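This part of the workshop introduces the protein records we will be handling. Getting from the letters to the tokens is the skill we practise here. The record below serves as our worked example for the rest of this section.

…
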Amino acid sequence: MEMDMRARNKVLRLYAEKYPTKESVYEDLINLQSRLNLPKGAEHFMSDLHGEYSSFYHILNNCSGVIKEKVEYVFGARMSDEEKANFCTLIYYPREKIAQMHEERLDTPEWYRRNLGRLLELSKLMSFKYPVSRVHEFIPKRYASIIIELMNTRPEADNAQFVYHKRMLQSIVEINGGADFIEAFTVLVKRLAVSRLHIVGDFFDRGNRPDAILNVLMDYHNLDIQWGNHDVLWMGAAMGSEPCIAAVVRNSLRYSNTDVLERGYGISLRPLSLFAAHIYPDANPLKASERAMLMLMFKLEGALIRRNPDFKMDSRLLLDNIDYASSRMTLNGKTYELENAYFPTIDDPKDPYEVTNEERAIMDDLVRSFTESETLQKHVEFLFKKGAAYTRCNGNLLFHGCVPMNEDGSFRKIVFDGTEYSGRSYLDYVDRRARRAWAYRDQSDIDFMYFLWCGRLSPLSGREFKTFERAILDDESTWKEPSDPYYKLIDDPKICEKILAEFDLPRNRGHIINGHVPVKVKKGESPVKADGKAIIIDGGFAKAYHKKTGISGYTLISNSRGFRLLEHQKVADVREALRENHDIESVSKQVDLQVYRSTVADTDEGQKIQEQITDLYNLLLAYQNGILTPKE
């Protein structure tokens, strides 16, 4: 008891250094108590971006319709539909829209004054959810003093204020500052629209500009990331994992998006293409390179599986199942004829996993390129800084793939280095080991990144890849990829409640938010599972998935009134948005409508604020009771 009292007094004395006077305690107590009653800020959830920069950038700027809704709410019948569309486009793409208006000679002083006034009015309304200090943080610093002054004017209340307000806007335009201030206001509006962004995995593969997406997000004001299996593949490649590098290069060749390697990260594929042209002279150069890298990937993968028995991936050791003399392959007791039985890089059929000298030279060159790419290293460092295997936020559980389970709904027990993990302890282990790989570069930990990419027991994947069968065999019955029972069990509300409880989250109002598995809308699948307990937001961002899903992706908005799911039918690109003022064609669905309005007190931030309030009250009591003496 005495020790507890001494410890508490020590904490109070430390707190007193920050708040040396009673007045400083009063100030923060009043501010913090008041902040708890503000409405909860909007959270924006996106997943499975897969390098589709154009779609991502428009949805990020649009905030999944939040800005459009605010414009409608503020201006309603005061602006025509065409004016509102023009105004929204200006908010989304200020530089491009201003350049267009200038080219058409429509950027008159009146146009600047009118739009500055509208942006100011919109910003004022949207700022009411935030304390003044937070709003100040959102304003670009170069323009902060003027914008703060404008936001504190009340032209509707007093003629002097009206004249003052009008003159400030005129002065901005007269000194040719209109374009700069419009852009600054649009930054403020977007930051006010979304208080936190969640990216639920998979920046890479299929689309060709994941690097551009990451460049944008590195400057975003508040976000978190849940690693996807495509992400950890690139993260492993950046650490020098040879199987990860082979898989990254093969995927880029398969989806014809080598620009991300060559232009985005400065990684040349010329040695590979020359080698492939030599060994597959009759093939298309791109296909030849893909085939050469695919065979090298199988060899490197085989060596990795053999040195890591804990990965339980022996079923993927298939090169030695081929009878190279008869061009046949045995799989699960059945023999298949091989359509393409030409394997020029297999020197010794008795040891098909041996890497040739030419392959070794290519791989050594690629390892140097991946590990020395400054941009790639910077992006992977960002993924570790902002990312995790899972995130708990405001009562919700976010992860990309699955929590491995058994058919009966129990958490699957998985063993690494003699230690058993399951449920939350397993995802914690995955997070720790991935970070250990980045920090210390031990070979077994770097190998673990490849396991996370495609291992059947990986929570970021949760299915057994059939890359070999899809590439070698024509029989599509061999292509089916067994997946973790989680993906079926997630339809059961009790299973969702069990998972939420495992992660110390409320069963009755928490949600599981996933990506990873494209929702086939045109086949009648729903992204909302288990009576709204689970929401799958991979609707096919990547163009490669559009035929399968029938839509252009899902995003999710959580605000003070609940969850709203956006099903995007068509996403405008920048040129279309500017030319036609087209926006996202989306269907909005309320997933969880609350009868009450959530406040900051209901959030994780609110819990931290409440703890701070308790400490401040204890300090105030210490001042009032003479335990500590405040400064005058």
